[in-house]
Amino acid sequence: MPEQGASTPDMSTPHIQQAAGPEAEPAPARTHPRTGLLVTLILGGLTATPPLAMDMYLPSLPEVTNSLHAPAATIQLTLTACLLGMALGQLVAGPMSDRWGRRRPLLIGMVAYVVSTVLCAFAPTVELLVAFRLAQGLAGAAGIVIARAVVRDLYDGVAMARFFSTLMLIGGVAPIVAPLIGGQILRVTDWRGVFVVLTVVGTVLTAFVWTKLPETLPAAERHGGGVGEALHSMRRLLSDLPFSGFMLAGGFAFAALFAYISASPYVIQEIYGASPQTFSLLFGLNSVGLVAVGQINGKLLVGRVRLDRALGAGLLVVIAAATALLLMSTGVFGKVGLAPVAAALFVLMSAMGVTLPNAQALALMRTKHAAGSASALLGTSSFLIGAVASPLVGIAGEHTAVPMAVVQLAAALVALGCFVGMCRTRSGRTSVEGAGS
Question: How far is the C-alpha of 224 from the C-alpha of 249, rounded, in Å?
Answer without folding.
Answer: 32
